[in-house]
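Example 5.3 — NADP-dependent oxidoreductase domain-containing protein
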Amino acid sequence: MRRALSARRTKARAVTPRCDASRVARLATGRVVSRVGFGTAAWGDETRGFGTRYRERDLAAALSRALERGVTFVDTAETYGASARAFEQGAEEMVRRARTTARRDDARDDAFVGTKVLTVPWTNVSAGGDVRSTTKSLVDAIEASVGRNGGEAYDLVSIHFPFPTWTQSALCDALAEATERGLCRAVGVSNYDVRQMTEAHGLLAKRGIALATNQVKYSVLDRGAEKSGVLAAARDLDVAVVAYSPLSGGALRTSADPEIRTLDKLLEFIGAVNGGWTSAQVALNYLVRKGAIPIPSCTSVARADAIADVLEFELGVEDIETIDEKMDYIERKS
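Solution (predicted structure tokens):
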């Protein structure tokens, strides 16, 4: 059975990212990152295969291969693998150890690691902690994340989502304070709509801080970021859009919907005529060509190679238009 994101090549190749729009993106802070990254939501999560289908050594090898191949954007969060944190196997801790291994194996370390802080007030209550209701409580949470990162500042810290009990001013104050205290080098948001992103951008700008990223759900099957205007507004504000769930949880491969299965075949055909890429790799390259930075899950070396291969080709304008026309048709029918 064809895998959703299978590696086209099996031999490792050290690829130094070219400084062009097809391989790297320059954030508003000036930092250059790869145009495709990988997410760590499955790291430490037993319900997603940790400890059975893959272990920490597999994750460390995956990160090393990704960096070797020029995939530098690494996304994590304080909540990823949180249930395994008692054993120091939360995602943040394992990313730190994996990065240490990569540094030992390769003198070059151009990883760009971002984490996210949760805004749900009762996050810490079950563990006997205080309610998160003040700017200080969020900064304390960011400081705890930095502790799990071995005391090293994160390249990026983002608000995980705008919980309704918080004002944008309080959230931006937390990001600003984290920056001023040296806990992070850049700040971002996640799951922000146009109004929220614009407001956050303005509040941070008043303190001389750039809003670097907005992480939103975005894929071929879910173009809400386009339809809502987030993608266009982010472009105007010089905010990079980071696309999570860029493969819709594998829906292209598993859906029983005949229209989606036809779309998968279309992507497969486009991949074939562009050099032999899988439908999933085409789906990721589609997002890159739209201006986003997709962060598919990565738990193996093979997966890291498959993700890195997305940087090896570029869909043409006609390919993008064909995919959009098919999705427009599917959406009209639904």
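Remark. Confidence is low (pLDDT under 50) at residues 6-19.
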